[in-house]
Each structure stands twice: as C-alpha cells, then as structure tokens.
Amino acid sequence: MTAVRYEVADHIGVITICRPEARNAVNGDVAAGIEAAIDDLEADESTWVGIITGEGSTFCAGADLKAVSSGNAAALSTKRGGFGGIVMRERAKPIIAAANGHALAGGCEILLSCDLAVVAEGSKIGVPEVKRSLVAAAGGLFRLPAAVGPALAAEMVLTGDPITAERALAAGLVNQVVPAEQVLDAAKALAARITVNAPLAVQASRDVMQQASSGADDDLFKASGYKMRDLSKTEDFAEGPLAFIEKRPPEWKGR
Questions:
Q1: Can you tell me the distance from the alpha carbon of 87 to that of 63, in angstroms, rounded to the nearest whole number?
Q2: What are phi and psi for residue 110, nearest 5 degrees?
Q3: What is the average per-residue pLDDT within 145-165?
Q4: Is the pLDDT reported for residue 104 higher than 90?
Q5: Model confidence band, residue 21 (pLDDT cutoffs 50, 70, 90)
Q6: Contact, 30 vs 3, CB < 8 A?
C-alpha cells in the first residue's frame, strides 16, 4: 500500500497521507511521497492548487517516533522539502491543508507550511515537542508567532499544550472549521474559489506575500511591479479584460 496518494481533478491536486494505523505519522515513505506529489503539482500546467490531507481521523501526528528511535530520523526529511517533504519546499502553487483531525508536532508544522487551512471541528493543533524533550524544528518556532502572534505562540510552544480548532480559527491560524466529514469537500470548495482566477496571477501574488515578512516596503512595491510586468507578457493577461468586455467567464491557460 502506498504511503501517499495523489489525485487530480478540476485543476486541483489532492495529496493524501495514507498511514491511518500510525495516525499518518511521517516516515521516509511519507516524506518521499509528499515531495513527489508536490513535484507533480508544480510540473503540471493544468493543476493550479494543491490540497494535503490524511486518511482516517488524524491529519498528521508528526514524526514517526519508531523511525526516530531506530536511528532513521534523517529519512523523515528530503533534501528539497525538509521535514515531510514539504515544510522547506520552495513552490509556486498554493496548497491548502485539509486537517481531518488532530495536527500535532510535525503535523502542525505541515499545516503551517500550507497557505490556507480547513480544520475539523473538535480537532487539536499544537507543538507538544517540549513534553518529550524535543524542539519543534520544522518551522513551528517561527511560523506560529507569525500566524497567531507572540503571546499565543509562546503559550503553545512553551507549555506544549494544543489549542482547539475553534481557538485556532479565532487566532487566524486557519480559515475554516467544519465537521470532520466535510473537511475535504470544504477544502475543495475553497480551492475552486482560487481556480476561477488566473493561475499565474495567483502564483505571482502568492510569491510577493511570501516575501512580506522579511522585505521592506520599497522592495515589496518593486516585487509587485515586476510581477505585473511579467504577467503583462502572458496570454492570460489579455484574456482577463477580453472576457470582461465580452461578458463571459475567462478561459485561463496558465501561460
């Protein structure tokens, strides 16, 4: 049985971690599978948005501690993607976390590496590493403060206690909280709201947003201008105004 499944429909690529018996914990096969799926997502001009989810009732419990204790911790990361093949991965296309259950430790850090998140009611999100004399080394220590603010992030990191999906929504960490059986459908609906837009414009806008936390305003204005200049040379740039004038939905080509 494959550790990661990848399926494409309607311009959306769905990445599913398939280890429900291990609460979808990341081992070497999962890390390699997620990286390969993102490779496919990035390479396919007709796939514009990704979703990552898990089988069963848990999104991801983080690192497979059996692999860690057996000395195979390095296999849980890939050269380009870092932990889980995703947390350090440079990519152009947005990815939505569809957290069908708890997102803890590395699972929380996978969620934090995504651009948007839909989370199941009753699920918990957190970085409990300090409870096991570990450090949240896959992005949680700096992405959490950026996402929820320093006070709540310090509470989550230093106590190791998770927060509810509802508190995560109130803090701005996730976009939607829905019943567990609706998580994937809600994530697909959110993805569909993105895919109606020009894919290259979405990617350009995402890229500037990614620079926002470390760039000065002058640099970000320049980056926005460069993106607009590049888009003006694409086929989709002409299609947008033309479709508006002709009062019809645009037909994006992604080029």
A1: 13
A2: -65, -45
A3: 97
A4: yes
A5: very high
A6: yes
Q: What is the pTM of this model?
A: 0.93
Continuous H helices in the chain: 28-43, 65-69, 106-113, 140-148, 150-159, 165-171, 183-195, 199-211, 217-231, 235-245
Looking at residue 197, the DSSP 8-state letter turns out to be: S
Residues annotated as part of the active site: 109, 129
Q: What is the mean predicted confidence (pLDDT) over 187-211?
A: 96
Give me the CATH topology for the region 4-195: 2-enoyl-CoA Hydratase; Chain A, domain 1 (3.90.226)
| Residue 233: HSE in the Cβ half-sphere, 13 Å Cα cutoff | 4
Amino acid at site 70: S
Half-sphere exposure of 182 (CA within 13 A, CB side): 8
Confirm if 20 and 55 have CB atoms less than 8 A apart: yes
